[in-house]
């Protein structure tokens, strides 16, 4: 048999509450029964004995009216004086019938009522009827002669019977009132007992909770607090109900696990501190290196530019002044010197531009990429005219960024598309944008020579070239600048290797919150947004609906021609402005 000490907390509380509930239910049942009896006694007082007293008094009044009417008729002989007598008899009969209906539980009162009726009938037969008959037949004197002391005695018997009836009704009413007081007192006693049971049960519950819950939990909390203060080797023991013992065991198991993890954390922290010390040393080295780079940038932008300009200028003077006057090999040497000086100038300028990205900042503002494309079109106009190239773009979004850097970004992409064109094929470059989640994905598509998938990542590395400088001139830093600008604006850039013709370079830029909200609220999504006008994409493989911006405020499609920025070897090309094609020979 299970000991009480082994009972669970739930079982103990349920047992106590069950006992209390049984006691309270028993008390409630007793109170209900007493309340029903009390109601019956009150009903007897209000609806039976009370009306009986009133009706008995009215019966007495009716008999008095009859006796008075008989006396009056004997004196006056006027038949009108008998009207109260007849009315009194009728009223008496009605009252007796009404009282009979209320006497089901009062046989003693019924006996007294029958006695009253018997005495009243005897009075009428012995006194009232003879007086009335004699007066009617022989006159008032003869009638008055019959009203003797014996006649008055008979009516007094009626009064005595009425007094007995009233006394019996009064005793019955007093008994009912006493029953009401008794049942009410018992109800009060039962309520006091119920309150006492609740108080005792509550006290027992509080004491039990203090012993079975509060003390064990307080002890457990004290032990846990010791562990929390750093004593992870302090064992935790549980007391009280089995649930608390198991809880203490679980907490102790957690303590052991934490102690083990902390030991591992200490070891890891020591390793991290060592790594941090190494990283701090590297950071100091990087800081010194950055200072050296900044100094180099300053030297490159000032000290190196001046002698380079002199070398280039004098080499060009030699080339112009002595061209054809020296032998062919001297002209070739001078041409090599001019070309080397110019390439060195371009390389230094590109390095400076690359190093300044993100370092010399003007702050982010809202930039309309359509305006940027207009500027790019102006910068690349000469190269487009030379190559008879066509530059088009869809409606582009407004984003937050630095306008000079974004202009450089798009100018580099457009210039690359024009530079790496196929022979005898007029270049076509198309710039488009679409909203993907919370970013704008912007594409620069052309119909040029394309890029092999294995070189898709290599082209964004600084100074990495896939072709000889004689085939495609340049410093090999343009796409590295593109990558750095995109990442500076929180985006990413890649080459779409699934393009069937030419090259598609895509990059992302964070969208404005209002554009994201407008796209989310639109039932059609980004694909149903405006796609622009009639301009054709760079290679014809990208539909206008896919390349559209998907913004609600899309205006007419605007296209224009741009020119290259990579040096004198970039040539002008043709273009399109608005919806009018403008071709330059």
Strand order of the largest sheet: 2-4-5-7-6
What structural class results from the helix and strand content? alpha+beta
Main pleated-sheet profile? 5 strands, mixed
Mean pLDDT: 77
Total helical elements: 14
Number of strands: 10
Principal-axis shape equals elongated
User: Could you name the ranges where pLDDT drops below 50 across 5 or more consecutive residues?
Assistant: 525-585
Written description of the protein model:
By secondary structure, this protein is an alpha+beta fold. Helices cover 64% and strands 8% of the residues. The chain has helices at 9-76, 83-102, 107-138, 140-145, 149-228, 242-301, 305-322, 328-356, 369-379, 381-387, 403-419, 478-488, 513-521, 544-547; strands at 365-368, 390-393, 398-401, 428-436, 439-446, 493-495, 504-510, 572-573, 575-577, 580-582. The strands form three sheets. The protein has a five-stranded mixed sheet with strand order 2-4-5-7-6. The chain has a two-stranded antiparallel sheet with strand order 1-3. Strands 9-10 form a two-stranded antiparallel sheet. Mean pLDDT is 77; it is low at 525-585.
């Amino acid at each position: 048999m299970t000991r009480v000490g082994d009972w669970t907390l739930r079982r103990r509380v349920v047992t106590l509450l069950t006992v209390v509930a049984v006691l309270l239910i028993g008390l409630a049942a007793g109170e209900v029964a007493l309340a029903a009896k009390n109601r019956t006694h009150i009903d007897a007082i209000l609806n039976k004995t009370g009306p009986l007293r009133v009706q008995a008094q009215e019966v007495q009044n009716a008999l008095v009216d009859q006796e008075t009417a008989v006396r009056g008729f004997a004196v006056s002989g006027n038949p009108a004086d008998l009207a109260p007598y007849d009315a009194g008899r009728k009223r008496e009969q009605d009252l007796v019938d009404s009282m009979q209906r209320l006497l089901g539980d009062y046989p003693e009162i019924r006996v007294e009522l029958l006695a009253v009726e018997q005495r009243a009938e005897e009075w009428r037969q012995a006194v009232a009827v003879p007086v009335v008959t004699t007066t009617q037949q022989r006159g008032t004197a003869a009638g008055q002669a019959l009203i003797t002391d014996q006649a008055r005695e008979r009516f007094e018997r009626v009064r005595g019977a009425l007094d007995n009836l009233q006394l019996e009704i009064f005793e019955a009413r007093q008994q009912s009132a006493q029953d009401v007081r008794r049942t009410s007192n018992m109800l009060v006693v039962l309520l006091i007992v119920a309150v006492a049971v609740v108080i005792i049960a509550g006290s027992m519950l509080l004491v039990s909770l203090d012993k079975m819950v509060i003390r064990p939990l307080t002890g457990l909390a004290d032990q846990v607090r010791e562990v929390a203060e750093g004593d992870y080797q302090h064992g935790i023991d549980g007391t009280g109900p089995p649930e608390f013992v198991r809880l203490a065991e679980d907490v102790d198991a957690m303590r052991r696990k934490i102690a083990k993890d902390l030991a591992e954390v200490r070891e890891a922290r020591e390793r991290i501190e060592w790594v941090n010390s190494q990283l701090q040393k590297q950071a100091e080295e990087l800081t010194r290196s950055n200072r050296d780079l900044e100094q180099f940038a300053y030297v490159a932008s000032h000290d190196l530019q001046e002698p380079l300009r002199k070398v280039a200028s004098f080499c060009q003077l030699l080339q112009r002044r002595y061209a054809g006057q020296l032998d062919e090999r001297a002209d070739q040497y001078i041409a090599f010197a001019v070309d080397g000086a110019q390439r060195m100038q371009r390389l230094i300028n590109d390095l400076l531009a690359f190093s300044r990205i993100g370092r010399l900042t003007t702050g982010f503002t809202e930039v309309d990429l359509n305006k940027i494309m207009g500027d790019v079109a102006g910068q690349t106009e000469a190269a487009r005219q030379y190559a008879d190239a066509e530059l088009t773009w869809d409606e582009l979004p407004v984003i937050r960024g630095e306008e000079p850097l974004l202009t450089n970004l798009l100018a580099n992409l457009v210039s690359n598309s024009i530079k790496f064109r196929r022979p005898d094929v007029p270049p076509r470059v198309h710039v488009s944008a679409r909203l993907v989640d919370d970013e704008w994905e912007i594409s620069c598509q052309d119909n040029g020579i394309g890029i092999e998938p294995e070189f898709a990542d290599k082209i964004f590395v600084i100074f990495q070239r896939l072709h000889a400088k004689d085939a495609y001139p340049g410093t090999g830093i343009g796409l590295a600048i593109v990558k750095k600008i995109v990442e500076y604006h929180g985006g990413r850039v890649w080459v779409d290797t699934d393009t069937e013709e030419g090259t598609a370079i895509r990059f992302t830029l964070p969208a404005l919150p209002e554009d994201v909200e407008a796209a989310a609220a639109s039932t059609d999504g980004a694909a149903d947004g405006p796609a622009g006008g009639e301009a054709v994409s760079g290679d014809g493989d990208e539909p206008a609906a896919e390349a559209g911006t998907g913004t609600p405020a899309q205006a007419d499609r605007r296209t224009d021609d741009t020119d290259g920025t990579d040096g004198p070897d970039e040539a002008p090309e043709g273009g399109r402005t608005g919806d009018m094609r403008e071709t330059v020979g």
